[in-house]
Amino acid sequence: MSGSKILPMQYPIITSWQWQANAFAILANYPQTEPWIMNHFIQLQLTSNPGSSYVDFYRTPTFEFCPWLFHQHLQRDTVRYFNKDICAFFVDCINLNNYIYGVFDQAFFVPGHDRLPHDLFIYGYDLERRVFHAADFTFTGKYAFAEVAFEQLEKAYHAIEGDEDWLYSGKGGLSLISFTDSLGYDFNIANVATQLEGFLAGHNSFEKSRELTYRTNPCVFGLEVYDKLIEDVIKIHDQQQEADYRPFHVLCDHKALMLRRIPFLEEHGYLQPDSGILECYRSIENDALFCRNLLLKYMITKQSSIIDKIITNIRKIRKEEGEQIESLLTKLVIV
Amino acid sequence: MSEQDVTGQIIQRIEQKIESSSGSSSEDAAAITPDTLLREVWLRLESIQVVEFVVELETSYELELPDELLGQIDRSSLKVSDLAAMITGEAV
């Protein structure tokens, strides 16, 4: 047996949430997954949780429905029953080409915390140096790859009990994820159009699919996300809600994927080249980044005038994105 | 204060930011000159560091810098020296 193994990982195109970043870090190694990526991550969902809004792509988490990822989910009790040595179990899983995803008390290896239950993605090991290779936001503040000592990871795993294991909205457990090309995927342009129409109408086109996911708090979709974000920004200004830049980071990711989707549609004959939509989406991406950075600036300075700029820009994004999606829908070649 | 002085101060601030950034070495920071493109500087910093840097400059020099610095500047030709010119009021 080799003394080390690192499963394929690339820095992902989207990093707003770790469950998305981890999935994209795997998929980026396999160009054949591109049609599936381009067929998804079109609809946005904002869920109104107490005190904050959670914005993500519909639907999530990717591990559970991506045809390119084989997902095995184990209860912690099951893992514990069969494996007295959790590090040896993880090494065996990696040798079988499984990435490992679970909640760990990262205070054992991230300095400055007494408790830090957070989900970690493990993708390699080195027996000689007794370290795992892992990815998360906790190491540097942005999505990053790092090494964690066996001893620290073992303690971090066993320190998680009960409600702290919040993976998959509280289901908990440990996920083993491997790449599989046994199913494949055919791009479905009609399905893309349906999602775009749903985005415009603020309607989840796949309402029935929600039965496959979890119970959620009230939520809105598509363009209506922007209306809700304006309400949130006003609440932040009025100190009724904590400032949170992450919804705007998701907007940036959404635009980054739209900027990749438009050339994809052109290259595959679903959209005539030089439609002008790509250039307009660059401007929308810029406005999304601008909103995120303005909110960061507000968090530092508390200048009221910044809130007005954010609201103006959200309205601009809503208007321009609505126009561009309408334009895209009229130009799509659906065969 | 001359544009040259301000350029020097800006470079010093950038070097400090880069050195405090995770995964960066002092060699990365040493490569900053007045002709370095701001988009290259931004790439070496975390998002929050870019915003902090802009706020620090605005506070230190008691002015408001253009909003474009907080947007996508990956196709901008602005250089470190241009930022100094904005501060000294010599920008075209």
Automatic annotation (TrEMBL), chain A:
It comes from the Bacteria. This is Butirosin biosynthesis protein H N-terminal domain-containing protein.
UniProtKB/TrEMBL annotation, chain B:
SUPFAM superfamilies: ACP-like. Transmembrane segments: none annotated. Residues 5-91 form the Carrier domain. InterPro entries: ACP-like_sf (IPR036736), PP-bd_ACP (IPR009081). Gene3D superfamilies: ACP-like (1.10.1200.10). PROSITE patterns: CARRIER (PS50075). This is Acyl carrier protein. It comes from Paenibacillus forsythiae.
